[in-house]
From TrEMBL:
Pfam families: TRM. Belongs to the class I-like SAM-binding methyltransferase superfamily. Trm1 family. This is tRNA (guanine(26)-N(2))-dimethyltransferase. It is an enzyme of class 2 (transferase). Its EC number is 2.1.1.216. GO terms for molecular function: tRNA (guanine(26)-N2)-dimethyltransferase activity; tRNA binding. Keywords: Methyltransferase, RNA-binding, S-adenosyl-L-methionine, Transferase, tRNA processing, tRNA-binding. GO terms for biological process: tRNA N2-guanine methylation.
């Protein structure tokens, strides 16, 4: 065990490079955890109760308790690591701004409680799918759900059978797979929510290639839009309108999904987070600039389906690749990606191809 420090918290964990590690620390997700803190802190009301279903070392939950001051009670749960969580909580006891903290070692798939939680976090190794039904039994219509998926091979199209088995959707490896994966994940969450008479609203997401993380709140009224994407098998053309043949080259269109066709984040949530960050830059130390860059880019992004990349267009037309700075509507999901509401045929014409 090594002693680490992240944000305001000191904690024990094992080196992430050790294959045998059960309580490992991944410093590459510090930005993700800081975004989580900022998201909770920017909410207008306190989270009375929180449940972290896969606590690991407890670093995420301890940072939420210590740095937001928004929780009155918080439960750290992990079937494998409850002892080290208790040790880390004791180490930071004076910093955890929470009236009631407890540690449990339940199987998250069958977690039983008599309470409704204001905030539930699901961050397993692999897919969150097996744990969503349990989570929705513990959520109310005013609750927040945060989930992570690290099975990106399935969601991004490299393991299509796994995606169908876990998420009941067909994925496809494309230039915009990063967005397709997010939309497939949101679709699956929406289906489970609706089986519990709730409808989701995606608030914000985080993606780095190794994981997808999304945050939701809920309504009993507005139902989200789920459907399919259609991708040409020969050219970059894609659409969410049902088509058998490509408008650009006449080739066959292949179906992807079902997936979420609505907005994948809420611009007002992003704006609130930016406003809070502007007034409290010092609270996020070395993550301030990265958080501001990410949220500012997301705030400006067109919240529409799909994006194109300069490399796929250059490859298809066998032309030199355009500089990404030429395009106004960039996306946070690809360094070479840009958004547009034009069809591929219209885009190609505008680019002079």
């Amino acid at each position: 065990m090594e002693l680490f420090k992240e944000g305001s918290i000191r904690f024990y964990a094992e080196n992430q490079q050790l294959k045998s590690a059960h309580v490992f620390y991944n410093p590459n997700r510090e930005f993700d955890r800081s975004l989580n803190v900022l998201f909770i802190k920017s909410k207008s009301k306190a989270m009375l109760s929180g449940l972290e279903m896969f606590s690991g070392s407890g670093i995420r939950g301890m940072r939420l308790c210590s740095e937001t001051g928004m929780f009155k009670s918080f439960i750290f749960n992990d079937i494998k690591t409850s002892n080290i969580i208790s040790k880390n909580i004791s180490l930071n006891k004076s910093l955890l701004n929470c009236d009631s903290i407890s540690v449990s070692a339940e199987n998250s798939k069958y977690y039983k409680a008599h309470n409704i939680y204001d905030y539930i976090d699901i961050d397993p190794f692999g897919s969150p799918a097996p744990y969503l039904n349990t989570a929705f039994e513990l959520l109310g219509k005013d609750s927040i759900l945060a989930i992570s998926a690290t099975d990106t091979a399935a969601l991004l199209g490299s393991a299509q059978r796994a995606c169908m088995r876990k998420y009941m959707a067909r994925s496809l490896k494309t230039s915009y797979s990063n967005e397709l994966g997010i939309r497939i994940l949101i679709k699956y969450v929406s289906e489970i929510a609706e089986s519990h008479s709730l409808h989701i609203k995606p608030l914000i997401f985080d993606f780095n290639g190794n994981f997808i993380r999304t945050y939701f709140d809920f309504s009993s009224r507005t139902k989200g839009k789920v459907g399919y994407a259609y991708q040409c098998i020969k050219c970059p053309s894609r659409t969410i309108e049902p088509k058998d043949k490509c408008d650009f080259c006449g080739s066959k269109m292949t179906k992807i999904g079902p997936l979420w066709l609505g907005k994948i984040y809420d611009v007002n949530t992003v704006k609130k987070m930016l406003n809070y960050l502007d007034k409290n830059e010092k609270k996020f130390n070395q993550n301030t600039d990265a958080l501001k860059e990410y949220l500012s880019a997301l705030y400006k992004e067109m919240n529409v389906f799909s994006y194109y990349t300069t490399s796929e267009i250059a490859s298809f037309f066998k032309r030199p690749e355009e500089k990404i700075n030429k395009f106004k509507n960039r996306t946070v999901l690809s360094s070479k990606g840009f958004k547009t509401n034009l069809s591929f045929k219209e885009l190609a014409s505008n680019l002079g191809y």
